[in-house]
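User: Um, any thoughts?
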Amino acid sequence: MRIAYLLGGYIKKDTIQLIRKGEYPRFEYNLFMDRNSTTAITYSEVQVSDKFLPKWAVSHKMLHVGLSSILLEDKNQYDIVITSGEDIGIPFSLHTSIVGFKKPIFIITHGSYFGSNKLKRLMKVMHFLPNVHYLCLSNSLREFMIKFFKVHPKRVFNTGYGVDTDFFNPRDNVSERFIIASAGTANRDYESLINSISGLDVDLRIAADSAWFPYSPRIPKESLPANVEIRSYGSYNALRDLYSSSRMIIVPLHPAYHACGYAVIGEAMAMGKPVIATKTQSHSDFIVDGETGFYVSPGNKDEMREKIKYLMDNPDVACAMGKRGRERMERFFSLQAYCERLENAMGVTKTITEP
């Protein structure tokens, strides 16, 4: 079965080299392409091909048109199309439907536009495209697709998420200081987190890195408490070292319908760390509340502080949570388990790893 993988971005050669050296984690498309007969079509192919897209459009939000055009040029080569997100999958589905493209399309669904009125209108059209299916990053996203957008349940799958559990693995490198770590920029409520540790004898280290969401803390750096540091960590190796030196990882989030915080929660659990995270409307399937970590309510700094204090006062409980979290990630949310669920939903294989 021949598969086209439309990626809303670029695959850099230096990243592939770093993965081979063990200095960079793999993502699902790396393993998926290794396991299946797959061709990646990225923005790089669009930019080098003037015949598919005029130069002015390359710098605008028209690159998905180029991806569609490249695939349609060789449409008979592929049996299935998978897209890395709705930003590519929905325009691609609408564009290709005009020319009668009937082959199965599977859209990895992050919920990025669930609050958009434009998406509500587009989904009314998407209902008439029976070849389009949705691969949701969590059960909460799947339920939203079914209940809010009225998508037929047979077209929506909870394929979950996957983390490179070989790269992110437990290490005996805990700092003598009690370090609490957090990371990421998308939809983060770092103000509540900073307030929650006021007066506690801890160091808070925040890795404000993201390839997608630039972040400027609302609290000026000169106003940060002495035990709080917010900075870029520059590389995945440095981020992994931060996780490793920490006693717990906290992912504070504002309310949201889209997936957010998944990568950091998954990476931290894979490294055997207990995690405290805000439970949003689109929460992941990683945390089993009270077993592998804790959920707290959005904006509730007192509840967050209570959970932090509990884990500080009960290190054995924190350690046991971390171990159970690592086991859960290895069993259900490794890249292999994630790819198996993608393949099963797409009909490539019948191996099933339930999230």
